[in-house]
What does this fold into?
Amino acid sequence: MPRPAAAKKTPTTYREAYAVLARVAGELESGEADLDRVLPLIQEAQAAYQVCRERIEALQAALGEIGTADEDQADDEEQDREEETEAELD
It folds into this structure.
């Protein structure tokens, strides 16, 4: 009777999660994974994938905020230049 697999700690960083995904992929691609081990491997990979996805989405959101702030600043500067030009023409 197979013994239950030890509970794996869910990775908390992108690097840890990526390492889990690489390890699981390697084990599955090797063809050496016992059939009883495939489902736990897939579940472990799903948890790691979720961590990676959350980190990527957080980074994209942060970059989007930076990009939006930069665009807002550029728009403000352009508007200031236009107002200065109009004032000079008057």
